[in-house]
Amino acid sequence: MTIGSNGEAFISTEIIPPAEKPHFGMWWWWLPRLALILFVAAVVALLWFSEKSEQEERHATLISDMLWLEQSLRFHLTHNEEVLGRFDAQRIHQPGVFDAHARNLVTGDTSIHQVIWLDQSDKARHALQPIPADLRPNGESQGQIPSSSMSHMARSLGHAVYSPPYQTQQGDWQFGVHVPVFVDGSHAGTVVALYSIRRLLENAAPWWLAERYRIEIIDQLSQTIGLRSKVGADAAGDGYQIPFDPPGHGLILRATPYQSPTPLAGRLISAALALLAVLILFSLWVLRRHVQHRLVAESALQTEVAFRKAMEDSVQTGLRARSLEGQITYINPAFCRMVGWSAEELIGRMPPMPYWAEEYINETRNMHAKVMAGQAPSEGFEIKLKRRNGEIFDALIHEAPLIDSAGHHTGWMGSVVDITERVRAGDLARQQEERLQASARLITMGEMASSLAHELNQPLSAISGYAAGCRNLIAAGAPSSEIDGALAKCQEQAQRAGRIIRRIYEFVRRHEPKTEACNLEILLSDLIVLIEADTRRQQTRIVRDIALDLPSIQADRVLLGQALLNLMKNGIESMRQTEESVRILKVSARLVEQQVFISITDSGCGVSAEASTRLFEPFYTTKSEGLGVGLNICRSVVEAHNGRLWFEANPAGGSIFHISLPVTAA
Fold first, then answer.
1. Which of 394-403, 500-509, 511-520 is modeled with the greatest confidence?
2. Nearest in space to 189 (alpha carbons), one of 301, 91, 255
């Protein structure tokens, strides 16, 4: 390690190239590697062949066990057929004879739980247990026994016939066997025995077989209708299946072996040998690579440190590192230039910092506590800081945790950006926007001034007339009731004029944006009243189609009213050249899925294809005297309320401007 002139520590290394090896040495270098690779390959092959032979042996044992189980089941069912065929048909109707025979079958290991005797006409005459009275021809396929079709088949074939399996009301699966009984060559009746598939598997499959395999009977739909398995054991993927005949009908007997613990002794030794060989080979390779990489890393580290130092010194963003206790551990030159203090003055300082503004000390302390607690906003936060000369500036700070090479959290790294000019520009833009909106409202009211003057002239003329009438009534000595009525009408006209003036004042005055509950029905009605004078002057009719159940939304009543009034006024102006009979301005409002849809439809000249692409651009207008800011302001106001403004052509001629506002607009 050497110390430079500037006090920085450097590690001096010199890479000495290895001496060139003789040609024969290369073979000796590769020989142990090749031997280890061959040894690992031999161990892997041995394990693979051992596993393969074990699998084949297990599969052969599975086939042998399944054939034994299938023969056992066949013998079990065939033996029961012989016993059922030996029923004494001549004495079957004597008391107790049928019950004795049937009970012997049910109480043994036959898996039979019900025995029924059918006469020559397939009518049930005897049964060990009660059977339903409403027996149907389709029989066992619907859970009813016996089935006349199966008995008829057994009688025709002269041997036992098995029915398809079916599910009982208790959820168990069973099937029946129909065994015809002949006396002296003539059919005397049919014995029907019902097997429980669950009991059949329990009786036929011994415990040692169930310990090895999951044994199940499945139908044609691959549905398990009988199961004998070890509780809690998992079956392996490979199995073996054979047809279950009798009873047949597509039934399959399937066995799946359980996952058995693999013998570990031999495999552990083989795996250990292979692992040791791999480790030796890998350690030789890693050691050689480590020496090479260490030399390269030392050189790269010096280059990287110099590069990062130059990069941090050149950026305009201030960087500041703090410990978990809030102590400053690092700052870059950009941060020093931003606040006016040097690195020597700041590094090691604890809060409060000299660049904290006294006027905002509480807010700064609270944000500092949040950062130290790891609760700083991920998108960053704005804060007021102070320069050394006392100037207050706005800063945008992003904090990130400092993690050391061991993965421990050691502090916080903050990037500080001076956004004073950005904040000042944003404030200026908002002020310009407010002035532009106020100017647009004044322009609109100026264009409507003549109509509003006429509108105000009516109540003022009425007031003057009612006042003269009162004087005449007083001079004539009229009763007070007549004078009171005239004064009431005079007061009503004065209130009417006051309402008109108040609407104009609320519309044109400048104000701060204010969000409040706004009833759209009342707002639209007030706007229609405000513009009625202009519509009468231009011989235009207004058609209202406003739903009565419109909800109140959170909105700025004046700004939203300005946007709606501009759209109504544009619609009226577009119909100047339209025939008087079709000058109709339709204002409609509906509530659809928590969205209020407002439509303003006119029958004017419409919007050309060229103008439609630039209609909402600022300072674009199709009027000779227009400023081109009306529709742009309308869209800005609607989007500020989380809504949407668009237009489409009116099929009957003209345009339709649509506004959608969410009920939860803010």
1. 394-403
2. 91
Q: Is 282 a member of any domain?
A: no
3-class SS string, 227-264: EECCCCCCECCCCEEEECCCCCCCCEEEEEEECCCCCC
* Residue type, position 570, single letter: N
What is the domain count for the chain? 4
496 and 573 inside one domain: no
Give backbone dihedrals phi and psi of 396, rounded to 5 degrees, phi first. Answer: -105, 120
Higher pLDDT among residues 155 and 284, named by residue: 155
Q: What does 399-422 look like in DSSP terms, one character per residue?
A: EEEEE-TTS-EEEEEEEEEE-HHH
pLDDT of res. 17? 40
Q: Find tokens 């108040």 and name the residue.
A: 502
DSSP letter (8 states) at residue 580: G
Output the 3-class SS for 103-140.
HHHHHCCCCEEEEEEECCCCCEEEECCCCCCCCCCCHH
Contacts of 228 (CB under 8 A, 6+ apart): 198, 201, 202, 205, 210, 214, 215, 216
Residues spanned by the domain of 471: 420-510
Mean pLDDT of the chain: 76
Output the domain CATH number for residue 322: 3.30.450.20
Calpha distance 456→449 (Å, rounded): 10
Q: How confident is the model at residue 33 (pLDDT cuts 50, 70, 90)?
A: low
CATH of the domain at 452: 1.10.287
Rounded alpha-carbon distances, angstroms, from residue 95 to 107, 128, 533: 20, 13, 110
| Cα–Cα dist 666/663, whole Å | 9
Q: 220, 245, 260 — which closes off a domain?
A: 260
Q: Which one-letter amino acid corresponds to residue 630?
A: G
Confidence check: pLDDT of 167 > 50: yes
Same domain for 145 and 169, yes or no, is yes
Domain shared by 50 and 169, yes or no? yes
With beta carbons less than 8 A apart as the criterion, state whether 663 and 551 touch: yes
Give the pLDDT confidence score for residue 236 in this predicted structure.
Answer: 61
The DSSP bridge pattern shows strands 112-118 and 186-196 to be antiparallel
CA atoms 350, 356, 361, 362: torsion sign:
negative
Looking at the fold, whether 414 and 427 belong to one and the same domain comes out as: no
Q: Are residues 594 and 660 in the same domain?
A: yes
Does one domain contain both 494 and 526?
no
271 three-state secondary structure: helix
CATH of the domain at 660: 3.30.565.10
> Is residue 351 reached through a cis peptide bond, with omega within 30 degrees of 0 on the bond before it?
no
For the stretch 192-219, pLDDT in tens is 888 888 888 888 888 888 788 888 888 8
- Phi first, then psi: give them for residue 414, nearest 5 degrees: -120, 140
Global pTM value: 0.37
| Confidence class for position 221, pLDDT limits 50, 70, 90 | confident
Would you place residue 484 in the very low, low, confident or very high pLDDT band (cuts 50, 70, 90)? confident
- Mark which of 394, 418, 442 sits at the end of a domain: 418
The predicted pLDDT at position 15 comes to 36
